[in-house]
Amino acid sequence: MASSAVAADLIDFLNASPTAFHAVEEAKKRLKSAGYVQIFEREDWDLKAGNKYFFTRNHSTIVAFALGKKYVAGNGFYIIGAHTDSPCLKLKPVSKVTKNGFLEVGVQTYGGGLWHTWFDRDLTVAGRMIIRSRKDGSESYLHKLVRIEEPIMRIPTLAIHLERGTNDGFKVNTQTHLLPVLATSIKAELNKPVSADDSTENGAPNDGSKSTKKINPGGEQHHSLLLQLLAAQAGCEPSDICDFELQACDTQPSVIAGAMKEFVFSGRLDNLCSSFCSLKALIDATSQNSLEDEVGVRMVALFDHEEVGSDSAQGAGSPVMFDALSRITSTFSPDSKLIPKAIQRSFLVSADMAHALHPNYPDKHEENHQPKFHGGLVIKHNANQRYATNAVTSFIFREIATKHNIPIQDFVIRNDMPCGSTIGPILASGIGIRTVDVGAPQWSMHSIREMCAVDDVKHAYEHFKAFFQDFSQLDGKIAVDV
Questions:
Q1: pLDDT truncated to tens, each residue of the chain (482 aa)?
Q2: Three-class DSSP labels, the chain
Q3: Domains recognised in the chain with CATH numbers
Q4: CA separation for the pair 241, 230 (Å, rounded)
Q5: What pTM did the predictor assign?
Q6: What number of other Cβ atoms are within 10 A of residue 152's Cβ?
Q7: How far is 384 from 382, CA to CA, in rounded Å?
Q8: CB 306 within 8 A of CB 316
Q9: Starting at the edge strand that comes first in sequence, how are the strands of the sheet with 441-443 ordered?
């Protein structure tokens, strides 16, 4: 498959996924189209060897797996793990801010974003809502994704004339500087809706006698203007919005760009690029008759909340991965001793984007470890276990690349710089599974607008697909604890 074709598919995935909730929804659509059957954690599982399944947790984490035709309980799991979340600005529980004649939206920072890149961008909101539904005299509450397509907010910068030292170092105050402007108070007042009693919301009744009827019980928490926009998008009344988790999103679409069309310009490459490549690799590596001789389970797990430490009910620090491994194993045998046996036969590729060498900042990289664009996936190493890679796991992943003539690179952080981390060490220590940390090289990590190379998208997809296809056979040739 050509690099441009894989990258074009990535662009479609990115543009459909402004939030972790939307990324999971897009993954669900692709999996169902490929013959995967949705199962539910609240129900019993009836699994059969040779079949393909997936489940979601919180609609922000998704686990998909395909059982080899020759799978038996106690055999290994071949897993690629990534994450669905990215640094962003999330709306506060009380987002209504009115200041100096303007309607602003209160937000809180999520993750370690490059917050100065959020200024002067055309922003909107997206996420999920809990909506009240009434039918036949009874109420139920629906989970619904929402996304306002057009730009409705902006965080304007201050003119240089009013802050002459800005170019010497702009320090963002995340509490006072990062409030998106939604509207002016005057325009919002003129466009207030008229309620059922013909009075304007929060205004005096037109006939001088009827009391004002609020448009939404949560109107004191959020601007009614914002609630109207959300309700129109969701096809409900503002009063039916019970709660929501929303975030500010850039409206500029992801694109293939550069003078030679060699780059991907987009938000959320960290880590939706890894999520997409692993998902596409799993789907293609489990199509047609590809599971006929497989003895293990091919799996992709895309977690929420990596950017804030993974400690949540749906993060990599939760039992979701172990729950999946144990439930699959126990479905085929009640013998609990087979679960640790299966774990020791398993392997995890922790896929999270890597830092490419920046031509304007070459001193930020260790001399012998400078990942470059077009150079393939980067194996991440850290002696202090910020990454879970060791000699055995890096050899396995590198050997697969060699067999398929796929380029591969290495990364070690400079000794005088702190090292980030991934879901790799969390899952390796929590479950006891062999792990290698890898990622495609990129620039502008945690910016509202990141970039990577088209070629590396293809390299990642091909490497992940080869991992699923080759691991069973390769693992049988490796002897360590003998």
A1: 788 899 999 999 999 999 999 999 999 999 999 999 999 999 999 999 999 999 999 999 999 999 999 999 999 999 999 999 999 999 999 999 999 999 999 999 999 999 999 999 999 999 999 999 988 888 999 999 999 999 999 999 999 999 988 898 889 999 999 999 999 998 888 767 654 444 344 443 333 333 333 434 445 899 999 999 999 999 999 999 999 999 999 999 999 999 999 999 999 999 999 999 999 999 999 999 999 999 999 999 999 999 999 999 999 999 999 999 999 999 999 999 999 999 999 999 999 999 999 999 999 999 999 999 999 999 999 999 999 999 999 999 999 999 999 999 999 999 999 999 999 999 999 999 999 999 999 999 999 999 999 999 999 999 999 999 999 989 888 878 77
A2: CCHHHHHHHHHHHHHCCCCHHHHHHHHHHHHHHCCCEECCCCCCCCCCCCCEEEEEECCCEEEEEEECCCCCCCCCEEEEEEECCCCEEEEEEEEEEEECCEEEEEEEEECCCCHHHHCCCCEEEEEEEEEEEEECCEEEEEEEEEECCCCCEECCCCCHHHCCCHHHCCCCCCCCCCCCEEEEHHHHHHCCCECCCCCECCCCCCCCCCCCCCCCHHHHCCCHHHHHHHHHHHCCCHHHEEEEEEEEEECCCCEEECCCCCEEEECCHHHHHHHHHHHHHHHHHCCCCCCCCCCCEEEEEEECCHHHCCCCCCCCCCCHHHHHHHHHHHHHCCCCCHHHHHHHCCEEEEECCEECCCCCCHHHCCCCCCCCCCCCEEEECCCCCCCCCCHHHHHHHHHHHHHCCCCEEEECCCCCCCCCCCHHHHHHHHHCCEEEEEECEEECCCCCCEEEEHHHHHHHHHHHHHHHHHHHHHHCCCCCCC
A3: 1-86+267-476 (3.40.630.10), 88-161+172-190+217-250 (2.30.250.10)
A4: 9
A5: 0.93
A6: 20
A7: 5
A8: yes
A9: 255-257, 263-266, 450-453, 441-443, 354-355
Rounded Cα distance, 21 and 118, in Å:
21
